[in-house]
Amino acid sequence: MTDHGPQPVERQLPTEEARDLLALVRDLVQREIEPGAAEEEEAGRFPREVFRLLSASGLLALPYTEEFGGGDQPYEVYLQVLEELAAARLTVGLGVSVHTLACHALAGYGTKEQQAEHLPAMLGGGLLGAYCLSEPSSGSDAASLRTRATRDGDTWTIEGTKAWITHGGIADFYTVMARTGGEGAHGITAFLVPGDAPGLSAAAPERKMGMKGSPTAQLHFDGVRVPDARRIGDEGQGFAIALSALDSGRLGIAACAIGVAQAALDEAIAFTAGRRQFGRPIADFQGLRFMLADMATQIEAGRALYLAAARLRDAGLPFSKQAAMAKLFCTDAAMRVTVDAVQLLGGYGYTADFPAERYMREAKVLQIVEGTNQIQRMVIARHLAGAESR
Questions:
Q1: Residue 176 and residue 115: Cα distance in Å, rounded?
Q2: What is the rounded distance in angstroms from the CA atom of residue 250 to the CA atom of residue 369?
Q3: Which terminus of the chain faces fewer neighbouring Cβ atoms within 10 Å, N or C?
Q4: Active-site annotation holder among 41, 76, 135, 370
Q5: What SS3 class is residue 123?
Q6: pLDDT tens digits, residue range 157-212?
């Protein structure tokens, strides 16, 4: 028998600065996030003060350039920060990923004037963002969205409803995809909408099986007026912008999934090392040891996959296929690992006194958000075999 318990993740980081950053994140996690995570999730409390702290610490701006207040970190580093945050509390890790996604359009496609005006506050001013693509009748088929923006001189009026919006109703700004032209992908344009815009309202948050502390809500746009200066990119470019953001966002979800899976594995190792049956720790029984080995292997494989995709992105190389693979594999692995963690804890795993059941409930949503895993398979197959003939 060994008294070996969970160990910190051994990370491959490119610089000493990155190692210091991860140490800072681990310290912040232990002081500010982990202690109240279970209680706050159960109560459905959103940790806005934590996000303000993350903003002040530069952790909401990591992959963006220093010119406008970003951290200028490669995705390889940013994603490992996300993993650490998600392992402590998925509401925080996924919230950082969504905020980063919401900043992507302006950072990548905005004019220099737009970036100078808005990005410093978005990246480091304590603001929180949300990303508005899905609608009640267009989820996986995002190109069929119906929310419409109509132009009148230098102003656009937005009418419609967005659905499944993380941070819906509490965000300070929304990156919104709306139809400005005809049907299909080429008729969509991106806008930056303030959270307090007149005519913008949120429905009651959805009642979810997990991530209760993270509000997910419909947003209603009832004659919301937005100046053309807040249009991002060219008219009709919005869907291309959305897809570009989702490629990067899928890597964020993959990293969050591995964080949740790692937390579940750590819990299972600690429990099986301390739980004694038949006169010895249950971690001594081969059947359970093999389960732990399989869980750890899936986590390491998922981590390697998302980091390989991140390094392609950092090198300026195509990574869409690899992002879909990482999102697919990592989220499926998180579901398997968390289910096994509950099993290893036995009856205790099924109670809210231990975090394993929360990890299992949270893992499920990661197979759905930012493109279901069925959509990821379609994306991967398209890269391998071309588009389907019709």
A1: 17
A2: 9
A3: C
A4: 370
A5: helix
A6: 999 999 999 999 999 999 999 999 999 899 999 999 999 999 999 999 999 999 99
